[in-house]
Automatic annotation (TrEMBL):
Protein name as annotated: DUF1330 domain-containing protein
Organism: Mucilaginibacter lutimaris
InterPro entries per UniProt: Dimeric_a/b-barrel (IPR011008)
Highest taxon of the lineage: Bacteria
Length: 100
């Protein structure tokens, strides 16, 4: 099982555009055998300690295999809305891991 954690940083004022992209992208995860396990929007009160800027959202997603993730990334429907992602997201830290 492959696990993907994303720390997502949004451009100021682009939250609505980001949500529009997520409305398309998140349902497509299941099409490629994946599952959104956790979607968190942390606020200042939830952060105990930090040495970095805190993200707008944190996603934890699982896919059975790397190929499933690659197929999701290449999805034609998702590609139609990548302009929303590019418009709204400042940066993403993507962490890949495996179940131990």
């Amino acid at each position: 099982m492959l696990y993907i954690t994303q720390l997502i940083y949004i451009k100021p004022g682009q939250e609505t555009v980001f949500h529009q992209f997520e409305e398309v992208a998140i349902p497509l995860i299941a099409k490629y055998n994946g599952s959104l396990l956790l979607r968190v929007r942390p606020d200042e009160k939830s952060i105990i300690e930090s040495n970095t800027k805190h993200p707008y959202e944190i996603h934890l997603v699982q896919f059975p295999a790397e190929q499933d993730l690659q197929n999701f990334m290449k999805d034609e429907e998702r590609k139609k809305f990548l302009h929303l992602k590019e418009q709204s997201i400042e940066s993403v830290v993507l962490i890949k891991g495996e179940e131990m």
